[in-house]
Design goal:
heterotrimer; A mainly alpha; B alpha/beta; C mainly alpha; A: mainly alpha; 8 helices; 71% helix; C: mainly alpha; 3-methyladenine DNA Glycosylase II, Chain A, domain 3; Alpha-Beta Plaits; 3 domains; two-stranded antiparallel ribbon; two-stranded antiparallel sheet; 6 helices; 4 strands; 7% strand; elongated
Chain lengths: 193, 547, 198
């Protein structure tokens, strides 16, 4: 039980995918301008990440290892991820067209998001049991969503603040992201994983 | 020790809070006119009555140029429901009806009725006194209060009669008379309470009778002990046990309706609701006296007490002024002679409006005219420094909002976010602007935001209506087109049918002529017979068709 | 041989996923264009055609289909452009045309010949009249689109500024703007007062 708690905590805070592993920066900076798009994107990515890591574990155990084609890992995982992203796009287009339009190109770009592929590959590398790997995928997704939403809140406040001309736009955003990463470094050592 | 225990209890809401969150403790140095008896103002040369002196629809003039009117005569009648009539403040002749400036921050003008006093001050006797109001029908009393032009004299000028209704759904338990007068410089209510205590209490009794209230509370701040004493004595004399007096600590804005209700009854009026919904009715002491005048004396609202004060006025005073007096005249009465170096504030310094034109007339909402020297005003809000996030504004806000955040959003035109932070719960008391160390005009940003939101909603409603009209027009045109097409189709069909019948008839005639010519071809004969038959049938059918 | 199995497995997996997606797309099919509806609700509905499209709905459809940029609506102004850009997820673009004061049309009835051409032209049906009778414009419903000016054969229609109503007055942004506005008003009132005395 504690093992699962540790896995979850580690994936969300200590080894956060965005701020500690520096994966998935593209949507992190791309859709965090507004809170609504950030929340929509984080739900989409959570869905894709969890299912992708589960499916990739299944594929690894049932197909890749028995047939000794572990070298085809990347290809198989991308196939799964692409299908999941396509599914998410369909659902989003139906249920929330404004969000679909607001996310724009970043929605299909989840396919090439290094965080999603990263969670799939890192997951199988760690040789977890089924439930543990699902939890790991879910934890990574929650961590990604958490940081995305927090950062969008910060960016919204930045919009209204009197920032010097030279820093307006990308410079202040990157500086803020760096400060957030510094803050999350404080979680290091919380759990030993 | 016990103070601390009380405070803890209040914070945990174990007992009703004796005071509201936030607020500023003004000292009383600015009450220059306190305890000065009311002075009657001289009659000016011209009385100017704008046709809208209340919240709601403007009135419609019922007099024409050249008419002679008496004091208390209706010169503009109410339009719509949220409206009360306007009366002439003295007898005289209507000189003109045209646009004139009003005490409004926009500087815009409004149609006003100009009356030249004839010096006789003849009174219109059409409204009879009703001293036994308890035996008068409630509907008639309410009509009387409406016809006397009574509106909230605390500054909000909401037509009073609308509140005075006995509603089964929302019964009124407590009637509160607001004698707080928390704004600095203003002392008109203070003086009214000292001089007209009986009238005020009788007015409250009338209100209690009208709404069937359980108890009445007169709320006074503790910086007016003389008023408290006078009212207590009057209450004892009149023997009204339902009514009591509550003395509250001096804090701005104690006199704000929602804050007052919270302190006295312990109930908080929910955001966007009226005090009616928590069973409370609140009016100003001046309004109560006006109700007494309307009912017991049969006098409409034609004059009121105004505090004329400010650091640029040599002889500040509480004056009893006829409505329609020009503010310049009023200020000259108090010794002001140089209007160039001063600015005139209509109302109190916290919530009042800076007038761009001091020739505006006194209206029902005028509770104070302050003439401030430019030097005093210049210090505030001309140079806006950036917000330092000190949090003082949030500490003093009586509504519990975050003014620095709201102002930031309003400034950047992010009105939806401002509304998320409850922009419309702001009562615009001015406490936050007062304490801001960076001199940011916070309340002005809120007013700008509220105005823009109202404008956007109006434009949206108009656009929606236009869209519906446009769609209806498109539907109408499409229908007309379809009908036209239908008619054309029917006409075409008829034409074709007629042509076909004609062709067949022709073919039948040819066939019969060929039969006569002796053609032995059986099929052709049969077919000719068939054709003849058909032709005959068609010939028979045709008349029916064409008819 | 060894290569065949992975290829087969991959192909089968891809096939299964493909069929699944096809079924999903059938189930999640989107009817109509909800995005165009949303954009249309933001437009001011003047139906003036200044955007180059015959009405607000066609422009909304075009924007939703990404055929035209978001800065073509002139009556909507900057606010509408920002809102549409927000929905479409594109950068705001400045409106090229000048934003004009709100106007409504006004017919000089003495000159009207009763031809009904303007009635047919009005996109919101706000002109009252009949053949050989005076026509007049219902100012409350007029959107200021100016489409009635051209058809009029006697040129008797003017566009007048909507008067500033006291109820619709809104506080300006605090700061120097406010001071300037108040000063301008005071100056105009002083002129009027001087005019009266003279």
């Amino acid at each position: 039980m504690t093992e699962f708690g540790i896995i979850l905590l580690s994936a969300v805070l200590v080894n956060n995918y965005v701020l500690t592993k520096f994966l998935g920066i593209c949507p992190f900076l791309g859709v965090s301008g507004k809170l609504e798009t950030a929340i929509g994107m984080s739900f989409a990515v959570m869905f894709v990440m969890t299912l992708a890591s589960t499916a990739s574990w299944i594929i690894q155990q049932l197909i890749l290892i028995p047939f000794d084609i572990v070298y085809l890992q990347t290809v198989f995982f991308i196939l799964i991820i692409a299908a999941l992203v396509q599914f998410v796009e369909l659902v989003m287009h139906k249920t929330s067209p404004v969000l679909y339009q607001g996310l724009g190109i970043f929605l299909p770009l989840i396919t090439t998001n290094c965080a999603v592929l990263g969670v799939a590959i890192l997951n199988v590398q760690q040789d977890y049991s089924f439930f543990a790997s699902v939890l790991y995928g879910f934890g990574a997704a929650v961590g990604f969503g958490l940081v995305l939403v927090l950062f969008s809140g910060l960016r919204e406040r930045l919009e209204a603040a009197p920032i010097p001309e030279v820093f307006k736009g990308s410079p202040i955003i990157l500086i803020t992201a760096g400060m957030m990463a510094l803050a999350f470094m404080g979680f290091a050592g919380l759990v030993k994983v | 020790m016990f103070d601390l225990w009380d405070k803890i209890q209040e914070t945990l809401h174990l007992k009703p809070q004796r005071s509201f969150t936030g607020g500023i403790a003004h000292n009383n140095q600015f009450k220059l006119t306190a305890s000065q008896p009311t002075v009657a103002c001289a009659m000016p040369e011209m009385l100017i009555h704008p046709i809208k002196q209340h919240i709601g629809d403007p009135c419609e003039p019922v007099v024409s140029v050249g008419d002679r009117v008496l004091r208390g005569q209706v010169i503009a009648k109410a339009q719509g429901y949220v409206s009360v009539p306007i009366h002439a403040s003295t007898s005289g002749v209507v000189e003109r009806i045209e646009e004139h400036t009003i005490p409004h921050p926009s500087g815009l003008g409004l149609t006003s009725i100009f009356i030249k006093p004839d010096g006789l001050d003849e009174v219109d006797e059409s409204l009879h006194p009703l001293p036994n109001y308890r035996s008068v029908d409630a509907v008639e009393l309410r009509e009387r209060i409406r016809n006397a032009g009574v509106a909230g004299l605390g500054g909000a000028v909401f037509p009073t009669f609308i509140k005075l209704v006995h509603d089964g759904k929302n019964p009124i338990e407590t009637v509160i008379l607001n004698g707080i007068e928390c704004e600095p410089w203003l002392t008109c209510d203070h003086q009214l309470m000292i001089e007209k205590a009986h009238e005020i209490i009788t007015g409250m009794d009338i209100i209690l009778h009208l709404v069937d209230g359980k108890k009445g509370v007169i709320a006074i701040e503790d910086n007016k002990p003389d008023a408290v004493a006078v009212l207590q004595k009057a209450l004892a004399d009149m023997g009204l046990t339902q009514i009591s007096i509550e003395v509250l600590p001096t804090k701005y804005p104690q006199g704000s309706e929602k804050q007052l209700i919270q302190v006295i009854t312990g109930k908080e009026v929910p955001s966007g609701s009226l005090p009616l919904q928590v069973g409370v009715l609140s009016t100003n002491v001046g309004t109560s006296k006006a109700i007494y005048d309307a009912v017991c004396l049969g006098e409409p609202l034609t004059e009121r007490i105004i505090t004329v004060s400010g650091d640029a006025v040599p002889k500040p005073a509480n004056m009893s002024v006829r409505l329609g007096t020009s503010m310049q005249f009023l200020l000259t009465q108090c010794g002001v002679d140089d209007f160039a170096g001063i600015k005139v504030v209509h109302g109190g310094p916290m919530m009042g409006e800076l007038l761009s034109n001091d020739d505006a007339p006194v209206v029902k909402a005028s509770n104070g005219i302050l003439a401030m020297s430019q030097a005093l005003l210049k210090r505030a809000h001309f140079d806006e420094d950036p917000c330092i996030r000190c949090g003082d504004c949030g500490e003093v806000c009586p509504a519990g909002l975050m003014p620095n955040l709201l102002a930031q959003h309003c400034k950047e035109d992010q009105f939806e976010r401002a509304q998320d932070y409850n922009l419309f719960d702001c009562i615009e008391c001015g406490a936050c602007s007062y304490v801001c160390p960076s001199h940011i005009p916070l309340v002005h940003y809120f007013r700008y935001g509220k105005g823009q939101v109202a404008q956007i909603q109006r434009e949206k409603a108009f656009a929606e209506e236009s869209r519906m009209r446009s769609e209806k027009r498109d539907a109408r045109l499409a229908k007309e087109l379809a009908e036209k097409e239908e008619k054309r189709r029917i006409a075409k069909e008829k034409k074709e049918a007629r042509a076909k019948a004609l062709a067949e008839k022709q073919a039948a005639e040819d066939a019969t002529s060929s039969v006569e010519a002796g053609s032995a071809d059986k099929p052709s004969v049969e077919s000719a017979n068939e054709n003849t038959g058909k032709g005959v049938a068609k010939a028979i059918d045709k008349p029916e068709e064409t008819s | 041989m060894e290569l065949l199995y992975p290829i087969l497995i991959f192909a089968m997996l891809a096939l299964v996923i493909g069929i699944g997606l096809a079924l999903a797309s059938r189930y999640f099919h989107v009817e109509g264009d909800p995005l165009a509806d949303k954009i249309d609700s933001l437009l001011p509905q003047t139906q003036c055609g200044q955007c180059g499209y015959p009405g607000c709905r066609p422009y909304a459809n075009a924007v939703a289909a990404d055929e035209v940029s978001v800065n073509h609506c002139v009556p909507g102004g900057e606010r509408t452009m920002l809102q549409i850009a927000d929905i479409m997820g594109v950068e705001p673009k400045a409106i090229e045309e000048e934003e004009t004061v709100p106007v409504v049309a006004y017919i000089r009835e003495d000159e009207c010949i009763g031809c009904t051409l303007c009635i047919k032209a009005c996109p919101v049906d706000c002109i009252i009249g009949a053949p050989k009778q005076y026509h007049t414009i219902v100012a409350d419903h007029c959107t200021g689109c100016t489409l009635c000016l051209e058809p009029c054969p006697v040129d008797c229609i003017d566009m007048v500024e909507t008067p500033e109503l006291l109820e619709h007055w809104a506080w300006p942004v605090p700061g120097t703007k406010r001071a300037i506005k108040a000063e301008t008003r005071k100056a105009s009132h002083e002129e009027k007062a001087e005019g009266k005395h003279v």
